[in-house]
Amino acid sequence: MNRRPFLVYSAAVLGVMTIASAWAWIQLPAGASIPIHWGIDGQANGFAPKEIGLLLLPVVLLFVDLMLTVIPRIEPRRANLERSGKAYGATWIGVVSVLGAIHLLIVAVALGAQLDVGRLVLISVGALFVVVGNYLPTIRPNYLMGIRTPWTLASDLSWVKTHRIGGRVFVIEGLAFLLLGALGITPLVLAIAVVSAVVLMVVILLVYSYRVWKLDPAKRSA
């Protein structure tokens, strides 16, 4: 699996994030605090010194790149991970893109832009869900990525079937997040809808993976 294109893309996104942070650093006064967290009412409720707020996500992106570069080399089922290269690459690019988008939102708000950060983040996450959902069925059993329940890891049949239905669930929820973000409904209703959707997804995948594992004659003990 050639990781160079993903590292190049990450470097480009990191470059944009760094330039944005440098510009904001110059514009903001010494000792300034910037919002880095928003509550369900859409209002900022968490602040950090600009040194942290402007550098946090670029550092997180570097950590993500390091993890995604190193871990596959020690993955016990490396061959399967290599065969999941398209899904791996799509997930890598998707995660990096979302981190970059959120960082630019933080910088824009720090410089005074009036943005509905909660809605924009939800739209970004919805797009990521759609992308990941389209590739989930192609992921082969491994310990790094995918729907790793005790039962998918103990049954190749459970892994395959759970990822097929999981891909559909991810796409449906991603589209729902995109729609919710576009509609601009009240923050409280939005938060309840998102939490409910995520909980429902987790329950569906846990129960389904267990049932398939239970019926698999080739299963291993979970």
Unreliable sequence segments = none
Sheet bearing the most strands, described?
Answer: 2 strands, antiparallel
Helix content: 55-70%
What order do the SSEs take from the amino end to the carboxyl end, as H and E?
Answer: HEEHHHHHHH
**Mean pLDDT, rounded to whole units?**
91
What topology, given as strand order, has the largest sheet? 1-2
- Tell me the span between the first and last alpha carbons: 30 Å
Structural class, by secondary structure, is mainly alpha
Identify the overall geometry.
Answer: globular
Strand fraction equals 5-15%
Number of strands: 2
Radius of gyration, whole Å = 20 Å
Number of distinct helices: 8
